Amino acid sequence: MNQKNKSTGAILGAAFLMATSAIGPGFLTQTATFTSSLGSSFGFVILVSVLLAAFAQVNIWRVLCVSGMRGQDVANTILPGLGYVLSALIVIGGLVFNIGNVGGGALGFNALLGIPTKVGVLISGILAILVFVVRNAKSVMDTVAKILGGVMIVVILVMIFIVKPPVGDALKNTFMPSAALGDMTSPILTLLGGTVGGYITFAGAHRLIDAGVTGEKNLGQIRKSSLTGMLVATIVRILLFLAVLGVVAKGAVLSTQGNPAADAFRQGAGEIGYRFAGLVILSAAITSIIGAAYTSVSFLKTFHKSIAAHENAWVIGFIAVSTLIMLIVGTTPAQLLIIAGAVNGLILPISLGISLIASKNKKVVGEDYKHPTWLLIIGIIVVVIAAYFGIKGFGSNIVKLFA
Known about the structure:
403 residues, mainly alpha, Amino acid/polyamine transporter I
């Protein structure tokens, strides 16, 4: 494969790595839960969260990829030691999310094949580990992300044709929601955190850096990859929303415990719908386990040569620890997946704030780079909104987890 094809593959792979990291079991659980409670008004939540997420991601990817520096190195450049703090937050948040992802894999196996939860947890961890056993792990990771991302889109599309959602009502409420704004603030935070919070927004950027797609000369490719990732995640979010809405609009009441996404598919299309849900959840879980582990370790490998030299081993260890904790603790996966989005939402204003400061630091972006002023201003607005929602919503979500 020539260098141009490798670069193109990495650009698309980075987009799908970001998207499929966001489209995890938590993404599915959150969408099903909030669609059940908000109905068609959840379209407005998607719209707001997607706009906020897009501006956050474009800012972060531009700064990191133009500089060729990973998030922790950017942070350490603007304030020595800050990179260690950011890395700790990302790795801890990634671990929490990954424990939920492994639990989500168990939910998928249970719905698809009836496999008991603990066995499903173990198999999910092993499948994700196998990706990093091979020599060309990053290429395999890109391929797995693209294939399973495609599987999720096709299966959810089939469900939409079966349940026939009220598309017109959903479109109207996307721009003029009937739900109260106060009822939508927590879902907006959770979706924002679950789409670009914590490790997720760094997943694709770090993949591009590893592939050498850096510098101002590659800004067009960087922007294309970033927006493609957001577009894929948004399409899946909208399709899943419509699939669940088609069930809820007919009067179905979804379970808020266990596996709400699978419950929606089952009520909409019977047992075959339930199996479809299992396939979607399993695909989402495996890709998210891979993305969370790869990105979390990428925040550690510049701190010591041995981590970079044995990156795959560290990724495997990260997945193994996540799997072991899920087996021991056994927290209900659906609950953990909701709180994971809130945790990452709390990290987002910190990581985005660092990137915005770095966009004006010549030691990071160089003497000639000019970060668009309008992008900087919107980024600051996103930081303020995310920080407000994050502080306000985090405590209540923690209470819900242990209630």
